[in-house]
Amino acid sequence: MIRPKPPPSLLVSHALHAVALLGALSSVLASGCHEARAEDTKTARIASPTPTSSARDLHPVTIHRPYPSLGMNTGLRDYQDMPSRAPCGTCHGFLEPKEKYANANKLEKFHKGVEIQHGGQSCRTCHALPGLTAFNLAGGEKVPYDEVMRLCGQCHAQRLAEYQHGAHGGMTGYWDLSRGPRSRNHCIDCHNPHAPAVPRMKPAPAPNYRTFD
Amino acid sequence: MSNDETSQPPVEKPRFTRRTALKVATGAVGAAAFTRAMAPLASFAGTLSMEELLQKHYKQLSDEDKQRIFRRLEAETKRDYGADVTIRDPQPLENVRYGYALNLSTCIGCRQCAKACHQENNHDRPSRNAYIRVFEMNKASMELANATAEYEHPVPVDGRRYMPVACHHCGKPPCVDVCPVKATWKEKDGIVVIDYNWCIGCRYCEAACPYHARRFNWTRPEVPKDEINPDQGYLSNRIRPQSVMEKCTFCLHRTREGRLPACLEACPAGARVFGNLLDPKSEIRWVIENKRVYVLKEDHGTEPSFYYYFSE
Questions:
Q1: Which one of A170, B81, B116, B131 has the fewest CB atoms closer than 10 angstroms to its CB?
Q2: Domains of chain B
């Protein structure tokens, strides 16, 4: 199918998209492989303060690093035919938001479609300026994107404690870390931080053998 | 005396008497009747080799016996299903006793665990069989009698709770007690297993299990060649013959190598916790020591290794 030529109004979106791509590319280039691994182990320490065994040569527990889920809709589609979004930091890396404590649901002009259903909070309850890519803890400390679990844990402390002890959150790999590594989900792999209620899903089909009557 | 005997003329015995004829005739009729009577057995045991018929109980097999049997089973899978599989027999790990916990507060009833079980354990495709059955019940009363496992609507539904039930690998398994041929037993790491080649399919164990965790292979399992999981264990997920029992084995072909069970890896809610009950620093021990935990049908005295807990 041939995609129709975008109307002129979407040219802005095109520009946004290009900037977003450039931004993503540069961030990938900036964080080399080695650095990324160091970050992983840092998050792993957050995730599991008590090692599962006293043995020294344990395999690592790594936490999946998800991509930001919210952003401006560019009106374009990516190579997987999914809606392409530009992360907020694309513009707000150098542009101050006009209203400092605005609720995103009330943004009407340019930001239509950016919705937050998470306790009626404003962007800056969690996100730090500039760039909206770092986070504010309640005490004023700024935490980078990779440590966002500390931010979630401020309100959801019980979930964080469970997560740290392996009792919350999906994982794959090895239960026995002396035999192999484990990979764990991040909070926002399952919970959209901007609308954290779990959406309903269609279950896998029921068995058709005889069960209890 | 001797002279008298020798003097008598020798009696020439007839070579073929009426008695002999009767013997031969009845023998022939008997053999024919026996063959006729056994004919259904011949067709029933069409693919049953003499080697399989004479195979000993798992615990009596030497390592050479096992290797020979595994190669035979692999060849049979190739012949019957067209798939190249590897059948192994991982042994229990030292100082390990498995435990499983499930968070009833976060389970959303999506049945992804049952789907993963279905695929991992080479279950019969038409029956959509799996060792896990997910019950939907009232959130407050949690009344199993009013629960259903056959819901198809989108989940989770408000006011409903979802409880996946599989084998609880009991400390005192009633299914093992009732087996008349000792085809099922509890291994030292706590996993209750079945020797599928020793099972006679009487289904006593299915009746004895209070969790309805055991399944009977009413038909020869149908699995498409491409969907067969080639990583198979003799006591776990190899394709079961018709007319034998089967059950959850905590994916022992995975867990005895340190890997997590398939149902846990598939759970999108992260509601499942698996680990070693003997390791005081394991996740499963933390759950048991710190959360509100209970076992299903505790009053039966089965001492399950499967725990349900809440995080709300």
A1: B81
A2: 98-310 (3.30.70.20)
A89 touches B at CB < 8 Å: no
Residue that has been written with the tokens 């109307």 in this structure: A7
B295 reaches A (C-beta below 8 A): no
* Assigned domain for A51 exists: yes
Rounded CA-CA distance A194/B162 in Å is: 26
Question: CA A162, CA A166: separation in Å to the nearest integer?
Answer: 6
B311·A158 Cβ contact <8 A: yes
pLDDT tens column, B207-253? 999 999 999 999 999 999 999 999 999 999 999 999 999 999 999 99
Interchain contact, A165 vs B265, CB within 8 Å: no
Contacts of A48 in chain B (CB under 8 A): none
Using DSSP's 3-state secondary structure scheme, residue B165 falls into strand
Question: Are B52 and B197 in contact, with CB atoms under 8 Å apart?
Answer: yes
Q: For chain B, say whether A118 makes contact (Cβ under 8 Å).
A: no
**What residues of chain B, 163 to 222, have a C-beta less than 8 Å from chain A?**
212, 215
* Contact status of B156 with chain A (Cβ, < 8 Å): yes
Using left for φ > 0, alpha for ψ between -120 and 50, and beta otherwise, residue B130 falls in beta
* Binary contact (A208, B275; C-beta < 8 A): no
Residue A184 in any domain: the answer is: yes
Q: Which residues of B touch A206 (CB under 8 A)?
A: 111, 128, 149-152
Task: Say which of A53, A173, A203 has its CB closest to residue B111.
Answer: A203
Number of structural domains (chain A) is 1
Report how far residue A76's alpha carbon sits from residue B297's, in angstroms, rounded to the nearest whole number.
55
Q: What is the pLDDT of residues B135-159, one digit of tens each?
A: 999 999 999 999 999 999 999 999 9
Are the Cβ atoms of A175 and B257 closer than 8 angstroms? Answer: no
- Tell me if A209 is assigned to some domain: no
> In which domain, by residue range, is A173 found?
11-190
Contacts of A196 in chain B (CB under 8 A): none
Transcribe B146-172 into DSSP letters. Answer: G-BS---S-BPPTTEEEEEE-----SS
CA dist B173 → B58, B167, B212 (Å): 19, 10, 12
Q: Does A100 touch chain B (CB under 8 A)?
A: no
- Give A99-158 pLDDT, tens digit per residue: 666 676 777 667 766 777 888 787 778 888 766 678 888 888 888 877 888 899 999 999
